[in-house]
Design a protein that fits this description.
By secondary structure, the chain is an alpha/beta fold. Helix content is 48%, strand content 18%. The N and C termini lie far apart (84 Å).
Length: 350
C-alpha cells in the first residue's frame, strides 16, 4: 500500500508538471493580423512583413497569426472566430465589410479582446484604436493633383469631363477616399461625367465599367480619378483596348509596382506613396502596448475611435525618382525592366 501510494503521488505530481509545462508552451501572447483581400499585393508584400518585423522587435515571445479573407465576408468572420479560439489577445482587423465588422468588434470586446481597426475604419462600432493613412486626404490629394494638371495643360473647363472610379461600396475607407475626391472635383469647375463604385476593388470590374464609358463618352473624357492603382490600371487597360492614344491622365493610390511602371511609361498620371510598413509598424506598437495593459495615446479621433492617421505624398513622373527611388521605397532593378528601362533612363532612375 505504501508503494502504491507513492506511485499515485508521483503520477499526480507528474501530471501537474505536464500541465505546467503545457501552460508555459502556450504562454506566449498571441496577436492576430486579419487582412481583407488578395486583389492588392500589398498585404503579403508590405503590411504583413512590416507588422511581423516590428512585433518581433518588440516582443520576441509573441506569436502573430495571419489570415487573409480574399474579399469574403463570411470567411473573415470564420477567421475572426478562429483566432479568438486560438487565444488572440489583440486582433488587428482590416475588414472586408466595414459594417459587418461591427459585430466582430462587439464579440471580441465582450471577451476582453482588444481590436485595432487597420486601414479601413469601422464606423458602426468603436474599436479600441484605428491606424491608417488619411483616406479622405488621399482622395482629395489625387483629385487636386489631376485638376491642377488639367489646368496646367490648358484643358478648358467647358470641355468634356472626368470619370470617377471609387473603391468597394462595403469599405468605409473607400467611402472616405470618395468623399475626398468629391471635395476636390466639386470645387474644380470640371464636370464629372459618370461615377462607379467598384465591388471588391476588383480591377477587371473597373476595366469593364471604363470600357462602357469610353464607348459612351469617347473623346469627351479628359481624365479619370481612380481611387487606387488597381482600378486606375483597369481604366488604363480599357483605354488601350479601345485604341485611345494618348490615354487621358489617370490617378491611382498605393504606389504598386505596376503603377510605378505605368507612371514611368507615361500611361498613369499619379499615385500615392504610402509605404504600408509605416501603418503596419504603428499597429504593432499599439498592439504591444495593449498586450501590456496600456492605453495608446490617440493622435486624433475618427468615428469616436482613438486614431493615428498618416499623411501620404502624391507621386507623379516629376517627383517619382526623389520620392520613391532615392528613398529606397522601390528598387530600380525590379521596376526598370523591359519596356520601362528607357523611361527610367530618361528620368535618371538607376
Amino acid at each position: 500500500m505504501k508503494t502504491t501510494a507513492i506511485k499515485i503521488i508521483s503520477t499526480a505530481a507528474l501530471a501537474a508538471v505536464l500541465v505546467t509545462s503545457a501552460a508555459q508552451v502556450h504562454a506566449e501572447q498571441i496577436v492576430a493580423f486579419l487582412m481583407p483581400d488578395q486583389a492588392s499585393t500589398r498585404y503579403e508584400q508590405h503590411d504583413l512583413p512590416g507588422f511581423k518585423a516590428e512585433m518581433a522587435r518588440l516582443c520576441s515571445d509573441c506569436e502573430v497569426i495571419y489570415q487573409n479573407a480574399n474579399a469574403d465576408v463570411s470567411l473573415q468572420q470564420q477567421q475572426f472566430n478562429s483566432v479568438i479560439a486560438q487565444g488572440a489577445e489583440v486582433i488587428v482587423l482590416d475588414p472586408v465589410d466595414s459594417s459587418a465588422a461591427a459585430s466582430m468588434v462587439n464579440i471580441a470586446q465582450s471577451q476582453g479582446i482588444k481590436v485595432i481597426a487597420y486601414d479601413r475604419p469601422i464606423p458602426d462600432r468603436q474599436a479600441d484604436y484605428y491606424v491608417s493613412f488619411d483616406n479622405h486626404g488621399i482622395g482629395k490629394a489625387i483629385a487636386d493633383s489631376l485638376v491642377q494638371h488639367l489646368e496646367r495643360m490648358g484643358v478648358p473647363k467647358s470641355q468634356g469631363g472626368i470619370l470617377q472610379i471609387n473603391g468597394s461600396p462595403t469599405d468605409a475607407a473607400a467611402g472616405l477616399i470618395r468623399d475626398g475626391i468629391d471635395e476636390g472635383l466639386d470645387s474644380s469647375g470640371y464636370t464629372t461625367l459618370s461615377e462607379y463604385d467598384t465591388p471588391d476593388w476588383a480591377p477587371p470590374r473597373a476595366q469593364s465599367w471604363a470600357s462602357g464609358q469610353i464607348a459612351r463618352f469617347g473623346d469627351d473624357i479628359i481624365g479619370v480619378v481612380a481611387a487606387n492603382d488597381g482600378t486606375g490600371g483597369g481604366a488604363i487597360a480599357a483605354f488601350k483596348a479601345a485604341g485611345v492614344d494618348p490615354v487621358p491622365p489617370v490617378t491611382g493610390n498605393d504606389a504598386t509596382q505596376a503603377a510605378l511602371q505605368l507612371i514611368i511609361a507615361g500611361d498613369q498620371y499619379n499615385t500615392i506613396s504610402k509605404p504600408a510598413e509605416i501603418v503596419a509598424t504603428a499597429a504593432a506598437k499599439v498592439a504591444y502596448q495593449m498586450l501590456n495593459g496600456e492605453q495608446p495615446v490617440a493622435k486624433t479621433t475618427l468615428y469616436d475611435t482613438p486614431s493615428e492617421l498618416f499623411v501620404p505624398e502624391v507621386v507623379t513622373r516629376e517627383n517619382i525618382k526623389a520620392v520613391v527611388f532615392d528613398t529606397g521605397i522601390a528598387d530600380a532593378s525590379e521596376i526598370c525592366v523591359g519596356r520601362y528601362a528607357a523611361g527610367c533612363a530618361e528620368l535618371g532612375i538607376q
